[in-house]
Known about the structure:
The protein is α+β, with helices and mostly antiparallel strands. It is built from 4 helices and 7 strands. The protein has one domain (3-138): Hotdog Thioesterase (Thiol Ester Dehydrase, Chain A).
Amino acid sequence: xxxxxxxxxxEWGDCDPAGIVYYPRYFAYFxxxxxxxxxxxxxxxHQMLKTYGIVGIPMVDTRARFLxxxxxxxxxxxxxxxxxxxxxxxxxxxxxxxxxxxxxxCSETRVWxxxxxxxxxxxxxxxxxxxxxRRFEQQGPEMPPKDREAGK
Length: 152
């Protein structure tokens, strides 16, 4: 599977009064890293929204483990990949390293979302197009469509 690495310089505004990254900032980092992962697959967000008629890829579940602090002035590297594709959702894994130290692990579940056909103000999941999935599969066999349709 495609992996993307993004380096982030920790700014003063990312930190709490103790000079360590304030935990919600990590989730902003990871959201940006998900966008960078799609861009690495040839799907910059603005193009993806237009090409596929989606409203986005909203997060429906996230969790993180904080293992070591990052501080003002640090350069951290986030490695991101999609670990599972389902019918209309997928899981993203992020690992944030400060040097050789794994500082934070995060997992996200996101949905390939379009405007609801029954509620003009709502959104709903739609089947992720096969060509999108293929862009991320650089190793290993492609998941057959029937297996993806059985998932969420």
